[in-house]
Structure formats: C-alpha cells, structure tokens
Sequence to fold (116 residues):
Amino acid sequence: MSHDEQCIFCKIINGEIPAYKVYEDEHVLAFLDISQVTKGHTLVIPKKHHQDIYALPSEVAGAVFAAVPKVANALKAAYEPIGMNVLNNNGEAAGQTVFHYHLHILPRYGKGDGFG
Ligand code: 5GP
Ligand code: ZN
Fold:
C-alpha cells in the first residue's frame, strides 16, 4: 500500500496535518514528534505507507537510513545534544502506536533528560 487514508503520517505527508519539517527528500520526510520525549525528538518516515519493518522493502529502508546521518547532523547543529539514539518500534508489544514505519531520533542531554 502506498497510501492509507486513515494513517496520521500519510496525512502529514499530504499536508492535511501540519508538522515541523526537519528534512525532506524524494522518498523520505523527517519532522518533530508531537510529544517531545527529549528536545528535538524527530521521526523519520518513508513517504510511501508501509506498516512496519516486516513490510518495508529494502530499497525504502535504504532511502530512510540514507537520510538518518543528514537528520542527525541537522539536529546536532540545532540542539547541541551530547548524544543521540536511533530507535524503531514494531508491533504493539514493542510500543508501536502509529502503523506507518518510522525511526525515532532522540537527541540526548545527559541524565534526567526524560529518556532512560
Ligand atoms: P511509536 O509509538 O509508534 O513508535 O511512535 C509514534 C510517535 O508518533 C509517537 O512518539 C507520537 O508522539 C508521534 N505522533 C503521533 N501523532 C502525531 C502527530 O499528529 N504529529 C506528530 N508530529 N507526531 C505524532
Ligand atoms: Zn501512512
């Protein structure tokens, strides 16, 4: 499926729901998470709808991961964190709540920055 009308991230891609964009190219969009676990918490998503890592074609995974260093460097410059996590949840049991594949990028600021 390339687009899911019920999907909140597809709506962000279409511009139906606003988001603060951090990075965009032909295949990938990165935008600030609405619920900032740490300052600069960003989601990186493919523009086509794939529900999770099991459904993600390798070439789409390649495009998403190719964008990650660019997003990470933009966040590093903007927020000056001292570390960064890159995470991906697949399935409800793993904490996935939006079923459009995404990576979380979490800038880290030291102990007590809101993320274990
Ligand atoms: P998950 O739990 O599926 O790994 O992560 C989904 C993420 O999407 C959550 O961190 C949540 O805050 C974020 N999110 C959900 N709805 C929206 C939205 O409408 N806009 C933005 N920017 N982020 C959203
Ligand atoms: Zn979607």
Residues 4, 7, 9-10, 49, 100 surround zinc ion (ligand 2) (CB under 6 Å). The mean pLDDT is 96. The domain at 8-108 is CATH 3.30.428.10 (HIT family, subunit A). The helical segments are 8-14, 58-79.
